Amino acid sequence: MDHRSVEVRQIKQTGYHHGNLRRAVMDAALEAIAESGPAGWSLRELARRAGVSHAAPAHHFGDKAGLLTAVAAEGFEVFADTLERAADDVLDVGVAYVRFAVAHRSYFEVMFRPELYRADDPSLAAARERAAHVLVTSAGKLSPSPAQDRLTTIAAWSLAHGFAGLWLSGALPEAAHDDPEALARSVIRLFSGTTR
Amino acid sequence: MDHRSVEVRQIKQTGYHHGNLRRAVMDAALEAIAESGPAGWSLRELARRAGVSHAAPAHHFGDKAGLLTAVAAEGFEVFADTLERAADDVLDVGVAYVRFAVAHRSYFEVMFRPELYRADDPSLAAARERAAHVLVTSAGKLSPSPAQDRLTTIAAWSLAHGFAGLWLSGALPEAAHDDPEALARSVIRLFSGTTR
DNA sequence: CTCCAATCTTGTCACCGGAAAGATTGGGGG
DNA sequence: CCCCCAATCTTTCCGGTGACAAGATTGGAG
What we know:
By secondary structure, chain A is mainly α. Chain A has 9 helices and no strands.
């Protein structure tokens, strides 16, 4: 199941109350972001997609930044879960990083654009810290000496993040678009193999 | 001199014709992007900053995507120039990559977000190719064997790009904000030193 | 000096985000 | 069982926005 969609809608087709508007709007947002980026849509369009008046989403998210905060927070949750599941091996963490960016592009494109949302949101910050912790500890295993821990972490993080960003923006040669995960694995192995 | 501002404005204070509207709007856009990202401003606001009617910019750029195309094109020009000037040493190219992103944040934030502009613009594509060429040739010197050229290039590119992106989004630990260039140099050295 | 093409302005339209005020609903307490 | 309240959603309105059309102004080429 992708972004934990619940879809109770079909049960009560009509009626004043939607039933699960919050989730419906979030899902609509994720779709819209996937189609045209984190700024290529309007709140009103999401409301239309959810079959609801244009002011309804405001009740659940406050404003547009509130919606994007919710998207980013959920994104960091899924992200942290993903990384933690791969935490055994450094290579796996890097590949999981890239796989998340590709598979959950909508989340990823919001998460690392803090000017779009309220980065000081507590639950969001917690999930972000959780993800960062996996990166730090897994990259630590790669570091040749404790003194190099910080640099190694930043390097590994930069490598994975940069690959993801370049792939998402379509900057990589077209061949990369077939199987980004395999290519990412090769690239990270090149780095981790020689540092170790 | 930053983004080649010319500023003929003060000469002719009044008058129907601005004199250099195109540049004035571009400069206003670069300022606005630096302040609030590539989507945190309006065309009309730029027109006001340039002291001109709300419809004047359209004559020079067509629409908002046209303006952002011009920004991205100019950005890739400056970027390619910067990289070419550093093309002797691989480490220098990487550092120049990061320095450009930090010093010309407004350009950088538009350049790698192709959904904002018309990526098929010929002059833009040419400058982008020019920059890519520097990356490929300089990273090639780092490659242990010709068979690894492609992977090494992508890895080096990802490293520099990822560091730049993480720094710009404020994701790196706060210590990094003092001197990103020095930190970038250390990170890239860690990578290039071990691959060679 | 005239006329033309580039440049800029004014006016208009549909749409957007946000706020205010009102309608509807379901569920818990009497 | 029913009423009332709080949550949810709708309607209405406002200032601002991007895009377009039509008109005014200007400098310079001929």
